[in-house]
Amino acid sequence: MKISIIGAGNVGATLAKMVIESDTADVVLLDVVKNVALGKALDLSHAAPLVGQTKRILGTDNYKDTAGSHIAVITAGFPRQPGMSRADLIKKNGGIVRDVVNNIKSSSPDAIIIVVTNPLDVMTYIAYKESSFERNRVMGMAGVLDSSRFTYLIAKKLNVEYKEIETIILGQHGPLMVPVISHTKVSGRPINEVLSSEEIDLLIRDVMESGGEIVNLLGKGSAYYAPSASCFTMIKNIINDEKNLLSACVYAEGDYGLSGLCIGLPVRLGKKGCVEVAKLRLDKDELDSLKKAAESIKELLSGL
Ligand code: APR
């Protein structure tokens, strides 16, 4: 297994560390700033004798080294700065993602692409269109992260273990995310039997503000530990053909009445990429929120 990670910044390097230390796959870390990729790959290689990894990591700025990758993760781009909206990033990161995708397409035509660069829904759409890959081979990482953040908040509020929480967040990666309350359970019980609607609303507000909160706290850059862990979860589902129900940004082809855009939907990931868009029974207000999120994403797409 060979995974190429494009962009050796915070998310890319942290993900590379997870993949390598878990002995999951060989990694190629590519950055437009060559020495950054070389330096981080070398540093991770020096840790190999200590952590017992057997897989290799290579730093480069040359796409030839990424040839034949099974998975290509795109983290290249610029993170949000305080006060900067995801929409502000479209122009800047869109050009980068187009360029990266064209390089992946020629060096690894059979790869599965996972987009991490924000604004996620738009960047995934650009990657899907630019690659001309089948829809199962292009996806964006956001839903796993948003769902994990929500799981953390619910577990903290109720002082229960994370494994007691079942939840999923769909829709846009941003203010129009759709926490699916009708499928959110605590130890098997619907969450609205455990918490009041006011308490649930506060948790929803908090999960929506999670990313921005970290941007403000860090002062420079955005979250990267949880984003890397989320991407790693998707990679493991693909490599091990796990097909767990999770949320990922994929091209909608009539799913939930949506089409012509990439949006967070419930999916199962396996060796072939997104092997299924799951059909969850959503409440009317959840379907309406999903539609609203889709409209907002489409508005952004119309400016491309
Ligand atoms: N090709 C390859 N790498 C590039 C390119 C390019 N064309 N343009 C920029 N990069 C590299 C930068 O040199 C930098 O090392 O992408 C890296 C981005 O790293 P960081 O600035 O540390 O950003 P990071 O926190 O990793 O976030 C990356 O993921 O979560 C999203 O919003 C976040 O869009 C951002 C992305």
List the topology elements:
Elements: E1 2-6, H1 10-21, E2 26-30, H2 34-51, E3 57-60, E4 71-74, H3 89-107, E5 112-115, H4 120-131, E6 138-140, H5 143-158, E7 165-166, E8 169-171, E9 177-179, E10 185-186, E11 189-190, H6 197-218, H7 225-239, E12 245-253, E13 259-270, E14 273-277, H8 284-302
Parallel strand pairs: 1-2, 1-4, 2-3, 4-5, 5-6
Antiparallel strand pairs: 7-10, 8-9, 10-11, 12-13, 13-14
Helix pairs in contact: 1-2, 1-7, 3-4, 5-6, 5-7
Describe, in plain words, how this protein is organized in 3D:
The protein is an alpha/beta fold and 304 residues long. The chain has eight helices and 14 strands. It has a six-stranded parallel beta sheet, sandwiched between helices. Strands 7-10-11 form a three-stranded antiparallel beta sheet, covered by helices on one side. A hairpin with a 2-residue loop joins strand 10 (185-186) and strand 11. The longest helix has 22 residues, at 197-218. The two termini are 35 Å apart. Adenosine-5-diphosphoribose binds at residues 6-12, 31-33, 36, 75-77, 79-80, 93, 96, 99-100, 116-118, 221-222, 224, 227.
